[in-house]
Amino acid sequence: MNDNEQKKQGLQLELPQETAQGEYANFAIITHSSSDFVVDFARVLPGVPKAQVKSRVILAPEHAKRLLAALQENIMRYEKEFGPIRIPSQEPRTIAPFDLPKGEA
Fold first, then answer.
1. What does pTM read for this prediction?
2. What confidence tens digit (pLDDT) does each residue in 25-49 have?
3. Cα–Cα distance, 95 to 25 (Å, whole number)
4. Bridge partners for 28 per DSSP
5. Taking phi first (over 0 means left), then psi (-120 to 50 degrees means alpha), and beta for anything else, what does residue 22 get?
C-alpha cells in the first residue's frame, strides 16, 4: 500500500484493550483557560460523599469546538433513530443524573 492509498483510508487508531473497556462517568466538569479546555469525567454514586475523577481530557479551544459540533451531530442522529433524549429538570449546566449535595471545591 502506497502513501496515497493510506491517506485515502484516513487515520488509523490503535485502541489498547484496557482503554477499550472504557470508564463509566455520569458527571463532567469543564474548565478552561485562554489556551485549553479541561473536561473531567467522574462517577457520582448515591450515598458516596466523594466523586472520583475517572478521566481527564485536555483540548485546545479549536478541538473543543469540533467536539461540540460532533456531539451535536451525533445527538441529532441518535434522536432521529431512537427519539428525543429526555433530561429531568435540574440545575442548569449540571449533567449528573441526580441531585448533588452543595459543597465547595
1. 0.70
2. 999 999 999 999 999 999 999 999 9
3. 10
4. 41
5. left
